[in-house]
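Suppose a colleague, Dr. K., hands you the sequence of a protein chain of 65 amino acids and asks what its three-dimensional shape might be. Before reaching for any lab equipment, you can write down a predicted structure in C-alpha cell form. Begin with the sequence itself:
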Amino acid sequence: MTVQELINELQQVKNKNLQIVVRGTDPTDWIYNNNFEGVSEENVFYEDIDDCYYRRRLVLDGGSF
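The predicted structure, expressed as C-alpha cells, is then:
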C-alpha cells in the first residue's frame, strides 16, 4: 500500500475521532490488537533468496505482539 492509498482509505472514515489499533495474527491464528504507537520514515531491511537490501518506507508502529 502506498501513502496515497492509505490517505484515500482514511478520507473515507466518517468518524475522525476513532482510536487507531494495529491488528496482527500469530502462526497459531490468535489475533492481537495493539495501540498505535507512532509513525516514522525509515530504511527497512528486506531479505529474499538472492539478495538483501533496504528500502525507504513509512512505518506504522504497532509495538510488540
